[in-house]
Amino acid sequence: MADAYLAYAAENRVRWDALFSHRLPAGIATPRWFEDALDAAFSHIETPLGAFRPALGESAKRLLARSIFAAVHGMVALGLDKRLAPVDLPVLRAQIRLVVTAIINGLPNDHDPTPHKRMTTDAGTRRARKT
Q: Of 6, 47, 96, 115, which has the fewest CB atoms closer than 10 Å, so is most exposed?
């Protein structure tokens, strides 16, 4: 999946950049349909993550999926812009695979990244909030 994300970003830079550069005006909540679409997209990470680590609770799986996405997204963004090092696409792809594999293989079966927090929706925005 990370390979497909990198390929899309590399082949569609303007569209990909537009996805992350748009900002809603201050005071405007994220539309519910967008949050639903985002949840559906993240389910494509959460589902295989649950297969690798079945002991993860739902909130832990949800947060970890978003953290893995953030790691891949950061590598793609910085890599395509050649901000960290001038690497070619195959090298960037290999590095992304290495990091994702390290995250998955290094995660203990009973890992819960949210022992004191859970992900909630707060006034139309996504934030980790103490519960």
A: 115
Average pLDDT, stretch 106-120?
Answer: 56
Helix (H, G, I), strand (E, B) or coil at 127: strand
CA angle 72, 73, 77 (to 5 degrees): 120
pTM (global) more than 0.85: no
pLDDT above 70 (res 51):
yes
The CA distance from 93 to 5, in Å, is 10
Which domain covers residue 107, as residue numbers?
A: 2-10+32-130
Number of domains within the chain: 1
Whether residue 23 lies inside any domain: the answer is no
Q: 8-27: buried (b, 16+ CB within 10 Å) or exposed (e) per residue?
A: ebeeeeeebeeeeeeeeeee
Give, for 43, the enclosing helix (H) or strand (E). Answer: helix 32-52
DSSP 124: T
